[in-house]
User: Which sequence fits this backbone?
C-alpha cells in the first residue's frame, strides 16, 4: 500500500542535482500508483454519464443493472447522505445529476461490481429518459442574456474590470486584434484512480487517491458524505501527473459512496475517454486586445476584453479569470489600462486549472500584440520587449508594486543570446523524416520555410485575492534520522527530492525519510500555482530550522558554547570562530525533537470594482525563442529548437528545474500546434489519444535552457516556483515563429494546417 | 443484451520465465489486464487502451508490443517479458539506473514502458543516433519530461556500454 | 466466449469453418481497441498470429512478384530485402502507428479492417495487388479493387481467411506520402501512393483517407503517362501541378473532426504533385 512513502534519501544538499528518491521504484515498475492499489474483496466501480450537453432527466431506472450477476450496488443522487453538490470555490456541481444534465459526461449514477466488464454491462442496463434541451455553447450568449440561465447561479460566473491611469489616452501607434485559445487537456498519463476502504463500523472511509490537494478533497468529500472530517482519511496514491486536472473532485465522492454502500473496498479507474470527460480543462478563451504605444515603441495603454468559457460548472473559473485580466499587460511597464473580463457558464465541458492558469491565454494575446506593435513601430521584436521590460518596483495595472526580483530584461537578453540551431532545413543528412510531416514523407527541403519567434511571460506564484494557502510541515529528529511529514502532493514535480535537500542543508544529516503523505497532518495547500517549492519548501525549511535551533541549544548546554554562534557546516555543527566543531550525528545522539510549522505567504487583497488591489503574492518571469520549419502548402509544422532563459530565483535542484522547463515547454508546444479538445454543439469529438494528439519524441525539439538565478529575498529559500512559466510563453513563441516563416497572421491556437494554408477550418456546407 | 460476464476460464501464460496460471478470467481480457489484475504484475501501465501511448509495452516473443492490444488468451505459449522481468528489485539494469541518474523520471507513469522500449532499441541498435532514438521511442508518450532527459539517459547507456565493451 | 490459437493454416480454416463469423485476430491493433472499449463483444476469436504459413513472404524473380503472407508485420516489411523490392510498402509501413504497433500489426490485418486510412492499402491498390482468401471449401484470389468494397467492408465471406497478397515488383520509382498533424504516430488525413512502371510505361496513383475505400485516379494516371518522359525522368512544373489537380479532383473526401474535406482534397493535390516530382525529378 505504500506509494511515495518511506523512501530513503541518502545524499544531496540544496543546489545539488540529485536524483529522485522514488526514481528506482519508478523505473522498476514497483512504485504504487493509485491505479495499482487493491485490497482483499475489492469491487470495481464505474460511472454512468450523460450523453447530452443539456437535457432534463425525466426518469432513471436502475433495476436492469441489479439483474446482472456480479453487480453489488447502484447509486444515484438519491443515495447521497450529505451535500448533493461540491466545488472548489463554489459548491455548484452535483455529485450526480438528478434533474438536469449540463454537459456531456456529467455523472448520473455509479455501480459497483465484480469486474470492469460487469460494470460496463450494468451501466448499459440503466435506463435514463431525457428531454433533450438546446445547449448553450456560445460564451457570448451567456453574457448577452439571450439564453436562459442553465444553472441557478446564473450564466456569468464572474466579471472583472481593470481600469487604471488614463482610460482615454491614445498612443501614437495603435494595434488591435482578436485572439482565440482552444480547449487544452492536461492529459496526464496516470488516469484518474482511487480506492476507498470503508471503516468496520461503516461510519467513515479511507481513500487512497491521486490528487493535488488532499485536504481540499477531504473537506468536499466529508460534506457530500455528511460525516465529520475525521471520518474521511486520505492518503496520496502514487500520482501519474496532474497539471491542474486533479485539483477538482472527480471520482472521489463516488468511490467513497460505493464503499460505504457495499461495505467493501471499491476502486474506480477512469478510461481515457472518461478522463477527458471527467476532469476540468484549460479554458477556451476569446480575447480582443488593443495596444497603444509611442512612436518609438513605449507601451502607453493596454485595452482588452477576455471571455473565458468555464463550461457547465464554476470550478476555479473566477480565479482563472483574475489571472487572465491581471496579466493582460504581460511583463511590460504600462500605466494605463482598460480591461474587461468574463468567466461564463455554458454546456461545454467544465474548465478549471491547467498549468499556467489563465496566464497562458493572456500571454498568447499580449505577445501577439507585441509583435504587431514591433512591426508597426519598425522595431525588432526582441528590442521592443527589452524597451518595455518591467523591473522590481514597477506598478502593475492593478496598482500592485512588484516587490520581488524581476529580471525580465535578463531573461530576454539571455534567451536571445542562446545559439541558434546549426542544422539546415532537413538536417545535415537531408533525411525527409526530419521535415514537417515526419514519417509521412510529405515534403522535400525545397518546400520548407524556417521562422523564428520570441515571447516573454510574467506569472503569479501562489494563490491570490486573500486566499491563505498555507502549508504545514513537521520535522522529527531522532538519533540522527530526520523524518519529514507533510501533505504536499508529489505529482512528479519532485517536491520530495527538494524536501530532503532542504532538510539535509539545514540540519546536516544525510538520513532523511519522507513520511506518508496523508491527512494526518495539516494542509499543504494544492500542488499548483507553482507554489510548493515556495510554500511547502518554506514550511519544511522552517520546521527544520526549529529543530536545528533546539539541537543547537542542546549542544550549547552540553558543550558550553554560545548557541547563537552555531551553524551547520556540511555534516558538522561549528561555531562562528571555527574553534568548536562536532559532527551533527554525534551531537544528536540520544536526542529527539519534533516540530510542526505552518508557513503562510504575505496576505493579499481582493480586487476592487476597478481591478485595483494587491491581489497577487509574487511573480516569476521567462522568455522563449522558437525556431520552426513550416510546410506552407500542407500547413504542417516541425519545431526545431526552443531556447529559454527562466527566472528561477535559486535552483534548489538544477536537474529537476530543467525537467520542469522541458516538460512545460512540451505542453506549450502541444497547445501551439496540435492539442485541442474539439467540441461540436456541446459534444466532444476527440476524447482519445488517437485523436487528441500529444507531442511525441519526434515533435518535441531539443531545448537550450539558461537558469537565471537571482535569489529572491521574499522567497523563503530564494527559490521561485518553476513549473508554470515554461508552458506560458513557449506557445506564443512558436506561433510567432510560424508567422515569421509564412508571413500570415495566426491568431488562434492550436494553429491548424488550414490556418497556415488559408483554408477554412470548418466544413463548407 | 446485458448478460453476466463469465469469469471461469483457465489458461497459462509464460511470463518472465515462469509458467503463470490465469484463473477465473473472462476471455475478453487484454494481456495488460491479466498481467496487472490476475498475475499481480503491476509495473505495466494502462493510459490509453488503444496503443497510442506505449505505457503498457512488453516483449512478446522478443518483440516490443502494447500489451493492451494483445488478447491475453491468445498469448499462450509465447514468451512474455514485463518490466518486472528486466532486473530484480533493488538491482536496476543499466537503462533503469541511467533513467534515474539523468532525471528522465518525473511522475514515472510512462517510465516502465520506456524502459522496455529502450532495452529493445539498444538490443537492436547499440549506438543509435539521436534521431534513431526519437523514432524508436516515438510510440511512448511522456507528458512530464518533454523527452530531453530521456534521450540523455539513452545516450548515456549507449556510451557506457561502448566503453565497457558490451556493445 | 472462446479463443482459439491455431498453429497451422488447416487448423485455422477448420476453426473458422466451425465459427464462420468468429473475430479473426491478427496483430490485434485494430480489433483489440474495439474490444477494450466495449464496442465489440466477440463470442469467438481465432488468433492467427501463430499460423506459420501466414508469417512469411516470398519473392518470385521469374514472375517478378512478391507474395506476402497476411501475418507479416509492418516491422518486417520495413526491412531489406523486401523493403528494396517494394519500397513504397516499406515507406507506408514506417508510418503505421508506433514501433509497438508495427511489431504487431500486419498487412493482412490492414486488408481485413479495410479502413480507408489503412496505410498499407494505397500501396496494394497502386500495385494492383491480388488478395488471396482461403476456407475449408478452397482458395480464391481476387484483385484488391474487388476485395475492397467500402468503409471497413470487404469481399471476404464468412469462413474465409485472408492468407496473403501478391504484389508485382515494378521497375521504376515508387513512394508513399501521408499527411497527419503530428510527426509520428498519426492517422492519415490524406495519403497517396505513386508507383511508376517503366516497362508498362505507366504511372499509378492511389489515394487513402479520401473516399469510402482506396481510390485510384484513372484520369491523373492517363495524363501522367503522356506528360512524363520515362527516359529523361522528367515532367514539367505545369504538368506536375496539373497531375495534382487531377488527383485532387478524383478524391471524394468527407468532413470529420480530423480534417475538412476541403483540406483533404487540397492535401491530395499537393502530395500527388510532389510524388510525381520525386518520381520524375527533372523538369
Assistant:
Amino acid at each position: 500500500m505504500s506509494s511515495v512513502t518511506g523512501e530513503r534519501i541518502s545524499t544531496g544538499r540544496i543546489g545539488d542535482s540529485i536524483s529522485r528518491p522514488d526514481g528506482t521504484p519508478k523505473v522498476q515498475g514497483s512504485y504504487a500508483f493509485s491505479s495499482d492499489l487493491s485490497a482483499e474483496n475489492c469491487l470495481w466501480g464505474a460511472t454512468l454519464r450523460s450523453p447530452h450537453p443539456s437535457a432534463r432527466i425525466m426518469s432513471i431506472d436502475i433495476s436492469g443493472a441489479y439483474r446482472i450477476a456480479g453487480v453489488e450496488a447502484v447509486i444515484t443522487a438519491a443515495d447521497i447522505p450529505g451535500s448533493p453538490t461540491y466545488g472548489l470555490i463554489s459548491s455548484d456541481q452535483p455529485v450526480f445529476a438528478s434533474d438536469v444534465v449540463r454537459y456531456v459526461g456529467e455523472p448520473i449514477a455509479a455501480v459497483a461490481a465484480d469486474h470492469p466488464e460487469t460494470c460496463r454491462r450494468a451501466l448499459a442496463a440503466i435506463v435514463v429518459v431525457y428531454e433533450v434541451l438546446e445547449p448553450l455553447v456560445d460564451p457570448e450568449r451567456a453574457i448577452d442574456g439571450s439564453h436562459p440561465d442553465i444553472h441557478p447561479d446564473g450564466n456569468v460566473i464572474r466579471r472583472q474590470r481593470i481600469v487604471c491611469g488614463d482610460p482615454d489616452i491614445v498612443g501614437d501607434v495603435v494595434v488591435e486584434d482578436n485572439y482565440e485559445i482552444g480547449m487544452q487537456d492536461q492529459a496526464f498519463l496516470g488516469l484518474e484512480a482511487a480506492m476507498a476502504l470503508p471503516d468496520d463500523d461503516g461510519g467513515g472511509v479511507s481513500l487512497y487517491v491521486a490528487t493535488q490537494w488532499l485536504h481540499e478533497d477531504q473537506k468536499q468529500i466529508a460534506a457530500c458524505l455528511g460525516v465529520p472530517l475525521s471520518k474521511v482519511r486520505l492518503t496520496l496514491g502514487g500520482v501519474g501527473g496532474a497539471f491542474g486536472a486533479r485539483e477538482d473532485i472527480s471520482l472521489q465522492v463516488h468511490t467513497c459512496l460505493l464503499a460505504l454502500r457495499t461495505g467493501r473496498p471499491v476502486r474506480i479507474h477512469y478510461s481515457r475517454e472518461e478522463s477527458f470527460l471527467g476532469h476540468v480543462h484549460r479554458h477556451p478563451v476569446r480575447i480582443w486586445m488593443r495596444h497603444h504605444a509611442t512612436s518609438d515603441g513605449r507601451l502607453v495603454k493596454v485595452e482588452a476584453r477576455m471571455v473565458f468559457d468555464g463550461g457547465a460548472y464554476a470550478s476555479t473559473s473566477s480565479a482563472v479569470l483574475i489571472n487572465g485580466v491581471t496579466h493582460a499587460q504581460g511583463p511590460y511597464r504600462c500605466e494605463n489600462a482598460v480591461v474587461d473580463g468574463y468567466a461564463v457558464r455554458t454546456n461545454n465541458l467544465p474548465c478549471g486549472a491547467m498549468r499556467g492558469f489563465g496566464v497562458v491565454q493572456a500571454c498568447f494575446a499580449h505577445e501577439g500584440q507585441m509583435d504587431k506593435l514591433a512591426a508597426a513601430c519598425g522595431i525588432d521584436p526582441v528590442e521592443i520587449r527589452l524597451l518595455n521590460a518591467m523591473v522590481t518596483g514597477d506598478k502593475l495595472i492593478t496598482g500592485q508594486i512588484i516587490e520581488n526580483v524581476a529580471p525580465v530584461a535578463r531573461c530576454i537578453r539571455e534567451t536571445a543570446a542562446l545559439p541558434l540551431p546549426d542544422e539546415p532545413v532537413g538536417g545535415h543528412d537531408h533525411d525527409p523524416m526530419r521535415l514537417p510531416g515526419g514519417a509521412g514523407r510529405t515534403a522535400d527541403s525545397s518546400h520548407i520555410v524556417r521562422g523564428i519567434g520570441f515571447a516573454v511571460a510574467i506569472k503569479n506564484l501562489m494563490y491570490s485575492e486573500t486566499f491563505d494557502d498555507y502549508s504545514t510541515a513537521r520535522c522529527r529528529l531522532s538519533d540522527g534520522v530526520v523524518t519529514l511529514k507533510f501533505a504536499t502532493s508529489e505529482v512528479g514535480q519532485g517536491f520530495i527530492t527538494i524536501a530532503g535537500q532542504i532538510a539535509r542543508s539545514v540540519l546536516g544529516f544525510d538520513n532523511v525519510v519522507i513520511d506518508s503523505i496523508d491527512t494526518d497532518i495539516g494542509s499543504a495547500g494544492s500542488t499548483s500555482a507553482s507554489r510548493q517549492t515556495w510554500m511547502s519548501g518554506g514550511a519544511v525549511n522552517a520546521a527544520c530550522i526549529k529543530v536545528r535551533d533546539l539541537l543547537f541549544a542542546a549542544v550549547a548546554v552540553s558543550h558550553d558554547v554560545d548557541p547563537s554562534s552555531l551553524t551547520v557546516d556540511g555534516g558538522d555543527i561549528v561555531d562562528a570562530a571555527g574553534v568548536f566543531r562536532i559532527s551533527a550525528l554525534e551531537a544528536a545522539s540520544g536526542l529527539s525533537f519534533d516540530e510542526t510549522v505552518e508557513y503562510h505567504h504575505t496576505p493579499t487583497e481582493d480586487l476592487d470594482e476597478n481591478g485595483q488591489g494587491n491581489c497577487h503574492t509574487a511573480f516569476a518571469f521567462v522568455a522563449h525563442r522558437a525556431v520552426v520549419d513550416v510546410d506552407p502548402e500542407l500547413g504542417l509544422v516541425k519545431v526545431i529548437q526552443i531556447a529559454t532563459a527562466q527566472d528561477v530565483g535559486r535552483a534548489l535542484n538544477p536537474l529537476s528545474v530543467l525537467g520542469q522547463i522541458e516538460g512545460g515547454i512540451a505542453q506549450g508546444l502541444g497547445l501551439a500546434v496540435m492539442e485541442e479538445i474539439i467540441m461540436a454543439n456541446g459534444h466532444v469529438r476527440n476524447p482519445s489519444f488517437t485523436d487528441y494528439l500529444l507531442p511525441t519524441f519526434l515533435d518535441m525539439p531539443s531545448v537550450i535552457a539558461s537558469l537565471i538565478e537571482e535569489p529572491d529575498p521574499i522567497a523563503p529559500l530564494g527559490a521561485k516556483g518553476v513549473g508554470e512559466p515554461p508552458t506560458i510563453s513557449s506557445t506564443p513563441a512558436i506561433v510567432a515563429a510560424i508567422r515569421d516563416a509564412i508571413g500570415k497572421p495566426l491568431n488562434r491556437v492550436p494553429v491548424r494546417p488550414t490556418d497556415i494554408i488559408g483554408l477554412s477550418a470548418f466544413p463548407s456546407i | 443484451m446485458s448478460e453476466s460476464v463469465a469469469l471461469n476460464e483457465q489458461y497459462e501464460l509464460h511470463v518472465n520465465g515462469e509458467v503463470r496460471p490465469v484463473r477465473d478470467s473472462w476471455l475478453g481480457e487484454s494481456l495488460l489486464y491479466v498481467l496487472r489484475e490476475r498475475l499481480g504484475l503491476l509495473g505495466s501501465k494502462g493510459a490509453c487502451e488503444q496503443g497510442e501511448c506505449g505505457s503498457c509495452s512488453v516483449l512478446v516473443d522478443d518483440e516490443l508490443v502494447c500489451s493492451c492490444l494483445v488478447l491475453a488468451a491468445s498469448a499462450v505459449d509465447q514468451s512474455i517479458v514485463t518490466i518486472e522481468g528486466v532486473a530484480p528489485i533493488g538491482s536496476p539494469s543499466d537503462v533503469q539506473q541511467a533513467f534515474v541518474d539523468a532525471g528522465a523520471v518525473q511522475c514515472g507513469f510512462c517510465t516502465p514502458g520506456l524502459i522496455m522500449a529502450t532495452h529493445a532499441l539498444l538490443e537492436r541498435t547499440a549506438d543509435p543516433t539521436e534521431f534513431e532514438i526519437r523514432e524508436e521511442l516515438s510510440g511512448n508518450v511522456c507528458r512530464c519530461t518533454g523527452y530531453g532527459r530521456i534521450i540523455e539517459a539513452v545516450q548515456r547507456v549507449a556510451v557506457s556500454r561502448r566503453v565497457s565493451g558490451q556493445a | 466466449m472462446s479463443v482459439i490459437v491455431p498453429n497451422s493454416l488447416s487448423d485455422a480454416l477448420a476453426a473458422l469453418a466451425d465459427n464462420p463469423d468468429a473475430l479473426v485476430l491478427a496483430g490485434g491493433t485494430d480489433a483489440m481497441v474495439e474490444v477494450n472499449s466495449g464496442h465489440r463483444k466477440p463470442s469467438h476469436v481465432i488468433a492467427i498470429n501463430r499460423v506459420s504459413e501466414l508469417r512469411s513472404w516470398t519473392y518470385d524473380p521469374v514472375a517478378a512478384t512478391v507474395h506476402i503472407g497476411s501475418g507479416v508485420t509492418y516491422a518486417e516489411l520495413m526491412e531489406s530485402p523486401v523493403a528494396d523490392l517494394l519500397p513504397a510498402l516499406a515507406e507506408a509501413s514506417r508510418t503505421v502507428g508506433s514501433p509497438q504497433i508495427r511489431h504487431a500489426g500486419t498487412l493482412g490485418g490492414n486488408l481485413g479492417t479495410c479502413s480507408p486510412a489503412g496505410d498499407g492499402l494505397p500501396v496494394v491498390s497502386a500495385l494492383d495487388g491480388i488478395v488471396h482468401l482461403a476456407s475449408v471449401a478452397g482458395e480464391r484470389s481476387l484483385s484488391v479493387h474487388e476485395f475492397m468494397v467500402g468503409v471497413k467492408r470487404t469481399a471476404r465471406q464468412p469462413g474465409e481467411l485472408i492468407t496473403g497478397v501478391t504484389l508485382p515488383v515494378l521497375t521504376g520509382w515508387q513512394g508513399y506520402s501521408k499527411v497527419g498533424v503530428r510527426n509520428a504516430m498519426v492517422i492519415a488525413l490524406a495519403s497517396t501512393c505513386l508507383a511508376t512502371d517503366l516497362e508498362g510505361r505507366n504511372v499509378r496513383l492511389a489515394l487513402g483517407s479520401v473516399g469510402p475505400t482506396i481510390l485510384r485516379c484513372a484520369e491523373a494516371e492517363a495524363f501522367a503517362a503522356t506528360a512524363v518522359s520515362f527516359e529523361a525522368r522528367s515532367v514539367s512544373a505545369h504538368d506536375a501541378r496539373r497531375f495534382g489537380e487531377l488527383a485532387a479532383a478524383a478524391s471524394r473526401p468527407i468532413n470529420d473532426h480530423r480534417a475538412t474535406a476541403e483540406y483533404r482534397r487540397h492535401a491530395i493535390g499537393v502530395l500527388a504533385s510532389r510524388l510525381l516530382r520525386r518520381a520524375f525529378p527533372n523538369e
